[in-house]
Amino acid sequence: MADLKFLLLYTLPILFLSTITRRFVIYFRDRKFIAANGCKPPRTIAPLWDPIFGIDFLVQCLKAAKDGRYIRFSGGRLIKYNYTYVIKRWAFDTIYTAEPENLKHMLATEFNNFKLATIRVNAMVPLFGRGIFTTNGPEWAHARAILRPSFTRQNMAPLLKMMERHFQMLLLQIPTDGSTLDLQKLFFCFTMDTATEFLMGRSTYTLDPSRRTEAERNFVDDYLTCCFEAVRKIVMGNWQMFSYNRNAGAARDRAWAYVDGFVAVADDYDDDDDDNDGAEYNFLEELSAQTTSRTLLRDQVLSVLLASRDTTASLLSSMFYELARHPHTYAKLRQEILSRIAGELPTEDELNNMPYLRWCINETLRLYPVVPGNTREAVCDTTIPLGGGKDGKSPLFVKRGTAVVYNLHALHRRPDIYGTEVDSYKPERWDGLRPGWGFLPFNGGPRICLGQQFGLTEASFVAARMVQSFEALEPRDDEPWAEFYSLVMCSKNGVKIAVTPAKSTVEN
What we know:
The protein has three domains: 1-32; 37-128 and 370-411, no CATH class; 135-212 and 257-368 and 414-508, CATH 1.10.630.10. With 508 residues, it is of the alpha+beta class. The chain contains 18 helices and twelve strands. The model is unreliable at 271-279 (pLDDT under 50). The strands form four sheets. The chain has a five-stranded mixed beta sheet. Strands 4-12-9 form a three-stranded antiparallel beta sheet.
């Protein structure tokens, strides 16, 4: 007992003094860093009813997500608070920004000072493993190096042929008698079919039930279950550690087992085997030449599946949502496409040389960025260029471990970059427009999307083929656009339209 009293008498004060001393050291170290870098206090600190845990802010985010307005809610706060603000809680701060200079600083200039946010990584790892979207540092660099050759050596000609086969199946699902269809649902099926064939050599055939097996149907369901769970955890933020979903875990295991089957086949692939002559391009087989790790192969396939399936479907859905509501724009796009490829399948070069088609795609990505927000976390004490001082023009101190959330919804609606009527769909605004770091649909810096050209080519191909196939579109939904925020953003109500078939058809 005496020993215990002695221990408490001397140890507890020592621990207390040690903690106080450490806090003072950190405080003066931070002050020195702030002074040396010209940092100023934040221009705007958003008010919180609960400054300890920020529960009121979490509840607002969850309610906005449920109502289909999470991105607008987040973007609206940024516009209200001059594009950069700070939320201070007892345990940690979070910085929110939509300043091009801040994004350039984090994603490129000071790339090594920031990493993917731990919250986002922890939410996505259960499905995507240690893929290119869930790793940092050397592990990320290794993953990117493995993937890069598969994209830089791409020959789009056979891939466009593959896309056309699946597009023909999509056409069969579109009623031509004036009845209503949900085009968004079909686009997500189409890109799932093309992405899985591109990646694994076997399509899920969601548009062709006669060829789809039980295994493919289950994989699609399990994949979607895991995506929804990842989004739920991202929105929960630091509270996700208290969340457990047994069904999502079981879905993850089944999805991994499905992909593992194709990884095993690809691992045994032999380029010198006569039986392989004439085989179509298979991403997984080419990727297997870069690594012997089957786990790494599976993780990269699932990551690229997200990038090649979900993002392209989101882009196409939002684009045709707007085209159906802007008949003049659709007619102008149709005139450009038919004047160049009236009755033939488009080539990659032809698709890349249609300026109005690119304007329509850019305007869609501006208004409806497929990944509307992201987060970086400081790996050391650092800064961002703007957000400090009374005018917000001074550097802002970013303490190690602080998350910086950037929102493309607000960035892409800045009048100082995009002019008037920033909430309107106007492809013509892109005539001569060069927004630089004010337009980031594919990220920027070293982490810029490897599959950007593949996604743009697929979206352009499908848009061109739709325009060739249908003379006019008619919207069949009067509801205002509401977001369905999964790992990508799309319309909560789908894309309800009716079509008028074209008089002539394309010759294959």
